[in-house]
Design brief:
Mean pLDDT: 90
Radius of gyration: 28 Å
Helix content: 25-40%
Number of helices: 17
Number of strands: 34
Shape: elongated
Distance between the termini: 31 Å
Largest sheet: 9 strands, mixed
Length: 776
């Protein structure tokens, strides 16, 4: 049981003692005051005419939250498999006793299960500052068939409707469900049902926050998450019921009721689910189609959404002596926009869960990552590049149409890697390793300039063996805005750095400008850029402005290098558009362009790209509004980082996929369309190490330094080392994601590791030395 500290101090405790000289006196009144929150609301226990007690939070204009029957149970009486309505019943009761002491209130209830057993509830409530905390203990007496869960749900006032609230559940929902994926836990189908239910194991922090119209907010956090489950449960299908004493994972959510909106937590984590999309048997290319699509053998196959809801019911046994214990904290915020709620609720979770830094040998990571990438450089008939897709377990190409493709940006990053080779070569000029790296970098850049016309772009990649310009399998029919811009930015910075050394590359600048000048012709009057074009043309494939952050990071340094004001003007207009359309709403999309190539999705990488763009504008203009915007994007983006360790099912280390074992803090969700780290997660955000260091240095906020440390160290946890190769080819190798497509190797993990390390060292060598070397 987690230790509960005394939270009522000073005048509040004295007041409690004056009002209620002995615990027994509390039973004679109609209300017991627990204390006053910092928003002015008073937390009280209110006695009903029937003699039961409920909890009530109200006053000073704060949102009214209440629960007349805090002891809520769902009892399941059926067997394993599909569940009928008659198998489920909900039991609710008020407290029978409310006992006050100097450090809070202890309330008890007894709820008969209906089959010869009973649930005994002991709730200990505390107030401190803007937080109401609860420790719940449930003990079962007697035994009965089936299983149960227990819940604490707080209800808003009846006049509050679903649409009056903006919900934040990290990595799954940021107010607007439109781009979260139809069947995702925070997607439009759930939102339309006015019912959210998510297992805490799918959330980077086990929490739900709700922002009210007036600027108040409420956040419910499991402060002591366990996440335990079994291997059988983890693989069981939807529309089944399971009962097990080992289920210690909770769920959080909200639902519209007849008396307002209920927000809370329950254990174990039963959820309402939607069956995943069904893949069409007949692949069909359908550029720009509205439905979600999936690539099959290089073709876009439509996905048919099954919008029939089903339950994934999980219970603990109704067994004499069985107990539940959990700890919750409810934070009450004031005067917050929705992005403010995201920031403040997330930091509340961070400060409560205290994610630990798992230190890594950063110098080793840099060298090993560079050497693995260098080992994969291929030169065929004068063409040099790093092919796209291999198997980390064998080193062989994967059987996919784009596996032998060398490409720019996003997951391929050939020019970014070439720039990293040049930087690494400068560390030890004259050595054989440095000479090799420099030549590889120069050859990669020269090949891309020779093969890929950029006005308009013919493509962003080519087959290393044939020289043919080919798309990624997920981008057939379109040329996305993002990948070319990011690699062109790296080439611009490389051009600038080389020129300072007295080395001129006019062909680099000419190629960059040919693309940038064409790109300027595509910008709309409102500053937005289209998301994608048909390759080799100026015909727009997708006019969504969601990737407007991408050109900014190229145009800002290009304006500096060339002195051409057009580039900076375009970047500023683009920045204003990104802030107006996405920053003010605190919701970014489309950075993970493979996932968003046909169905635009809310994601982490869109936030990272916006942070990158806003920070570039701030460092050039020194206008504080761009720093404010960069920090807002940083707050959104970091909420995708796992800050608690979700255990493997059964706490059993996976002998077949050993890279799954070990700490999870620092891994990140990818898009909102998914079940969480259990089925997909990666380390892409380690690219942004120096962006968070900049946020720390420019704002003076030490929280961003803590994020910097996590991103610098923890994101390297799944890379093979001499100590454990994870059955990969060797040290420095790793697969792309946490739990998807075992062995899938792309160049981006190594490139991102290197970028985070090198750009932090360039930005602030002293800070880099301090946090990379193991000191605080």
């Amino acid at each position: 049981m987690k230790t509960i500290h005394r939270l009522m101090t000073g005048g509040a405790a004295a007041c409690a003692l004056v009002l209620f000289a002995t615990p027994m006196l509390a039973q004679k009144g109609v209300a017991v005051s627990l204390g006053r929150l910092s928003n002015g609301a008073i937390v009280r226990f209110v006695k009903s005419p029937s003699g039961d007690w409920g909890i009530d939070v109200a006053g000073q204009g704060a949102p009214h939250l209440s629960q007349p029957q805090p002891a809520r149970f769902e009892v399941y009486s059926g067997g394993a498999g599909p569940v009928g309505d008659s198998d489920i019943k909900t039991l609710s009761a008020g407290y029978k006793t409310v006992t006050q002491s100097a450090d809070g209130v202890t309330a008890t209830a007894e709820v008969p299960s209906g089959n010869g057993a009973a649930f005994h509830v002991v709730d200990r409530w505390r107030v401190k500052g803007n937080v109401l905390s609860l420790h719940r203990h449930v003990a079962v007496t007697g035994s009965g068939a089936g299983g149960f869960d227990s819940a604490i749900m707080l209800n808003t006032a009846p006049e509050v409707a679903w649409g009056d609230l903006k919900f934040m559940m990290p990595s799954k929902l940021y107010a607007d469900a439109t781009y979260d994926g139809a069947t995702s836990p925070g997607g439009p189908l759930h939102y339309a049902e006015k019912f959210l239910s998510m297992r805490e194991t799918v959330l980077p922090a086990p929490m739900i926050a709700a922002n009210f119209k007036g600027g108040d907010s409420v956040t419910v956090l499991d402060t002591n998450p366990k996440g335990d489950t079994t291997t059988a449960e983890a693989t069981a299908p939807t529309n089944t019921a399971m009962v097990d004493a080992g289920f210690a994972f909770g769920a959080l959510g909200a639902r519209q009721t007849d008396t307002g909106v209920a927000i809370g937590f329950w254990l174990p984590g039963t959820i309402k689910d939607f069956e995943p999309p069904v893949r069409s048997a007949a692949p069909a290319v359908s550029p720009g189609a509205a439905p979600a699509q999936l690539t099959v053998n290089g073709q876009m196959a439509p996905l048919k959404v099954n919008d029939k809801p089903a339950w994934r019911r999980r219970y603990n046994p109704i067994q004499a002596g069985f107990t539940q214990d959990y700890d919750l904290a409810v934070r009450f915020g004031q005067h917050e926009t929705f992005p403010d709620t995201t920031r403040n609720a997330w930091r509340f979770a961070w400060n409560s869960l205290k994610p630990a830094v798992h230190r890594t040998d950063i110098d080793y990571v840099r060298r090993a990552s560079i050497d693995v990438l260098s080992s994969q450089v291929r030169t065929v008939d004068g063409r040099t590049g790093i092919p796209y897709l291999q198997d980390a377990r064998t080193g062989d190409f994967r059987n996919r149409s784009d596996a032998k493709r060398a490409a720019m940006g996003f997951c391929a990053k050939n020019i970014e890697v070439a720039d990293e080779f040049l930087k690494e070569a400068d560390r030890d000029p004259g050595s054989a390793r440095s000479k090799k790296l420099r030549q590889q970098g120069l050859d990669i850049i020269a090949t891309f300039i020779r093969l890929l016309p950029m006005s308009p772009p013919q493509g962003d990649g080519f087959d290393i063996f044939t020289g043919q310009i080919i798309p990624a399998s997920w981008s057939i029919g379109q040329q996305a805005l993002l990948p070319i811009n990011t690699d062109m930015r790296d080439l611009t910075l490389a051009y600038e750095r080389e020129k300072k050394k007295g080395i001129s590359h006019p062909e680099w600048l000419a190629w960059i400008k040919s693309y940038a000048d064409w790109e300027l012709t595509q910008q709309h009057k409102d500053g937005a850029f289209p998301r994608a074009w048909k390759p080799g043309t100026s015909e727009v494939f997708s006019d969504s402005p969601s990737a407007t952050y991408a050109p900014i990071v190229l145009l800002v340094p290009l304006a500096r290098v060339t002195g051409d004001r057009r580039y900076m003007d375009a970047a500023l207009r683009a920045g204003e558009n990104v802030w107006k359309n996405y920053g003010l709403e605190g919701n970014y999309q489309g950075g993970a362009i493979d996932a968003s190539s046909s169905q635009l999705l809310t994601d982490k990488e869109g936030g990272m790209a916006a942070l990158d763009a806003f920070m570039a504008l701030y460092e050039t203009t020194h206008d504080k509004k761009w720093l404010t915007r960069a920090l807002s994007a940083a707050d959104y983006t970091e909420s995708w980082i796992w800050i608690w360790n979700v255990p493997l099912p059964g706490h059993a280390a996976d002998p077949h996929q050993r890279w799954r074992n070990g700490p999870m803090v620092g891994l990140q969700g990818i898009t909102a369309n998914g079940a969480g780290i259990e089925t997909g997660g990666d380390e892409y955000l380690d690219w942004a190490v120096s962006l968070y260091a900049r946020a720390y240095k420019y704002s003076g906020d030490p929280h961003y330094l803590e994020v910097t440390k996590i991103l610098l160290h923890n994101t390297k946890a799944k890379m093979a080392t001499p100590k454990d190769s994870f059955d990969f080819v060797g040290p420095g190798w790793e697969q792309e994601g946490w739990n998807s497509d075992p062995g899938k190797w792309l160049s981006w993990p190594g490139a991102n590791h290197i970028n985070g390390i090198m750009t932090l060292e360039e930005f602030d060598p002293a800070l880099f030395k301090k946090i990379a070397g193991g000191t605080n």
